Amino acid sequence: MLGFTFNGHHSSEYEIYMRSRNRQLLPSIRQVEEVIPGMHGVYDYSSGELEDRIIEVDCAIVGDLRSKARQIASWLYSATRGKLIFDDEPDKYYLAKINNRIDLEQTINLGRFTLQFKCEPFAYTDKSLSFSTKPEVIIINSQGTYKTPFVISIKNNGSVNMKNIKILLYKG
Question: Is 113 buried (19+), middle (13-18) or exposed (0-12) by CB count in 10 A?
């Protein structure tokens, strides 16, 4: 069953059947425009920055709907963004939170609802590298599609003198 993980819990724990409704290839580009009197069109100040991404997922549950609905509501509610991971892209995650009111459409033992996640514009990935010997040069290639900031964390599990470690960053 195709599903998703949000805030550390998989949709299958709540017996949710899901279908992606809208997983955008690219979020909206922030438009900053001004109308200048006497000028045709608008003056475009846009810098190419991206808006938050909206991901919509249609869901269905069967069985004891009211009890499941309360458990699902408790799981999905968060004042802050959490990791949203889809089963068909397990190496990527979005930082997301629920953006909509969740209405449960109920027919006997079948319940349907749509989740709308408001996410940061980019999908993220965590890469981990470990070495048992001292490498001379390490090249990390991100496979990303957009220039984004990154974090390098170094954990010394051995007896390497950390004073000898140098990190050189360059734009390739």
Answer: buried
